[in-house]
Amino acid sequence: MPRMRLDKLLSHLNCGSRKEVQAMIRTGRVTVDGAAETDPAAKVDPDTACVALDGQVQRYRAQRYYMLNKPAGVITASRDERHETVLDLFPAGERRGLFAVGRLDKDTEGLLIVTDDGALSHALMSPARHVSKVYEAVVEGELARDAAERFQKGLALRDGTECLPARLEILSEGAETRVRVTLREGKYHQVKRMVAAVGGTVVQLRRVQLGGLLLDPNLPAGAFRELTGEELELLRQPGVSLG
Ligand code: URA
After folding, report:
1. Which residue is closest in CA terms to ligand 1's atom 4?
2. Catalytic: 105?
3. Are residues 43 and 76 located together in one domain of the fold?
4. DSSP letter at 86?
């Protein structure tokens, strides 16, 4: 779709008359892709721009964005003959056009975005964009003393595959070790394989963050809800840095 004036788009979206939306824009209540835009004549692409008024994303097309707390035991696929899939957790009437952004293993729990927005999915999964992903894991076995440094330098997996620098934080030690792992890429079984490379075995894995978006702690496993406008904007921003 051709680019159009921001004030025209907002009035088409029933946010107010042309005059009213111009005042809203000038007073800083409108953001485009997460940044304040105070020029009513700014040109935006209604198909791809994330335009928000007072933090609420104004949808030009009625696209759907859900946060799912994936339970263990379901596979990240749209349809499967033998296994329950993440889409089976949605009512049949809502599934059409939806897909999961990225993939979690069958036994991994936690944050999964389910949407019908292919452009957002592509942007989040693009290897060039390095969107960060944060996992919490329960680990058995003894981790190498220099495990965190090796993660930070970018370690090689047992098969020789090189990983980008990542962060390993030990949350607690004892009968079981709890760790937090922050990655900027998404190789197959990456957390399990990185932990294995430093001597541990992941026995439980949960994703808690994707880019700037946190898993809602009040969302039970197996449940989903729509993303708020603010959450959608967080997803459109670059990932958190490894610090
Ligand atoms: N790393 C893994 O090992 N498994 C996942 O599901 C996600 C990241």
Report:
1. 189
2. yes
3. no
4. G
Structure tokens at 35: 């940044």
Ligand 1 centroid, distance to 191 Cα (angstroms)? 5
Ligand 1 atom with minimal separation from the 104 CA: 6
Q: What is the pLDDT along the chain (243 residues), one digit of tens a residue?
A: 678 899 998 987 878 889 999 999 999 999 998 899 999 999 998 877 889 999 988 866 568 899 999 999 999 998 899 999 999 999 988 888 999 999 999 999 999 999 999 988 998 998 888 899 999 999 999 999 999 999 999 999 999 999 999 999 999 987 789 999 999 999 999 999 999 999 999 999 999 999 999 999 999 999 999 998 788 888 877 544 443
> How many domains does the chain contain in total?
3
- In order of 18, 147, 177, 179, 204, the CA distances from 200 in angstroms are 60, 10, 9, 11, 12
Which residues form the domain of 105? 65-127+215-236
Locate the ligand 1 atom nearest the alpha carbon of residue 133 and give its number: 8
Catalytic hit among 39, 105, 116, 216: 105
Q: Please tell me whether residue 167 adopts helix, strand or coil conformation.
A: strand
Secondary structure (3-state) at 56: strand
Instruction: Look at ligand 1, atom 2, and give the residue with the nearest C-alpha.
Output: 189
Do residues 205 and 108 lie in contact, with contact meaning Cβ atoms separated by under 8 Å? yes
**Statement to judge: residues 203 and 143 lie in one domain:** yes
- Considering the domain architecture, whether residues 225 and 194 belong to the same structural domain is answered as no
Residue 243 lies in a domain: no
Closest atom, ligand 1, to C-alpha of 193 = 3
For 209, other C-beta atoms within 10 Å of its C-beta total 20
179 and 224 housed in the same domain: no
For a ligand 1 pocket test, name from 135, 151, 209 the mutation site with the most ligand atoms within 8 angstroms of its C-beta.
135
